[in-house]
Amino acid sequence: MLDKIVVQTRLAVAAAKMDEPLAVIDSQVVSGSFAFSAAIKKTKWALIAECKLASPAKGTLCNKYTVLELAQIYANHGATALSVHTNAAFRGHIGDIVKVKAAVDLPILCKEFIIDEYQLYTARAAGADAVLLIAAILSDAELVRFLQITRELGMDCLVEVHTLAELIRVQQTEAKLIGINNRDLQTFTTNIAQTFTLLNHCEPDHVVISESGIKNGEDAQKLKTAGVKGILVGESLVIANDVAAMTRELALSGSK
């Protein structure tokens, strides 16, 4: 599934370059101020709340709210930052960042399958404060180059790892924000035990965010106790009967 999404993303990027060349996008870029990492570092516990309408594995997750409506609920109930999908496989669009940025005063992570530097410029032009880099789909050289470009653009990178081998690779770069994804890329099942396992191998100067499979405040508290700085949560929020209440639960549980 991941391979399929990457192929589709390469085709989409190629089409976008034809429509709006990099020079055009670059002319729209205003350098950022690393607001994403600043927001996470200044709080004791960070909830990165994800505006997630669908997933390739489970289809539609949320019909009740739009991306903008979810962002506003999250912002009003304790989220530290927002994650906005821009990939079509998740019913996302780069324009969603523009809409959310205009309405909500929280840092935004562009959730995308970044495989081309063009996407970094596009994300910043739309107003993103950070991007997700997935170690599993990038070479060492690409990781280094993309980290350098985002630094020049004033954006942060949350670099996502799934395995110890990926963590070792990432810790050899300048990355400081590491996301441990609890999803097995072969089976797509999730288990937060993966965070506890990899956390033992994280260097102390890194800020660690746990991603995927976090279901409630109890999970959040366990992760906080283990030494995680925050969590990135999408599905558990958007499928909740009361999104606002679940946002408060996840935001407050880790701060106790």
UniProtKB/TrEMBL annotation:
Q: Which UniProt keywords apply?
A: Amino-acid biosynthesis, Aromatic amino acid biosynthesis, Decarboxylase, Lyase, Tryptophan biosynthesis
For the keyword rRNA-binding, the answer is no
According to its UniProt record, which reaction does this protein catalyse? 1-(2-carboxyphenylamino)-1-deoxy-D-ribulose 5-phosphate + H(+) = (1S,2R)-1-C-(indol-3-yl)glycerol 3-phosphate + CO2 + H2O
Record has Transport as a keyword:
no
Specify the domain of life of the species encoding this protein.
Bacteria
Q: Which EC number(s) does UniProt give? A: 4.1.1.48
Pathway connected to this protein? Amino-acid biosynthesis; L-tryptophan biosynthesis; L-tryptophan from chorismate: step 4/5
Q: Name one GO molecular function term.
A: indole-3-glycerol-phosphate synthase activity
Which residues does the UniProt record annotate as the domain Indole-3-glycerol phosphate synthase?
2-250
Instruction: Tell me the Gene3D superfamilies matching this sequence.
Output: Aldolase class I
**PANTHER family for this protein:** INDOLE-3-GLYCEROL-PHOSPHATE SYNTHASE, TRYPTOPHAN BIOSYNTHESIS PROTEIN
Protein name in the entry: indole-3-glycerol-phosphate synthase
* Species of the source: Sporomusa silvacetica DSM 10669
Taxonomy of the source species: Bacteria, Bacillati, Bacillota, Negativicutes, Selenomonadales
Report the gene name: trpC
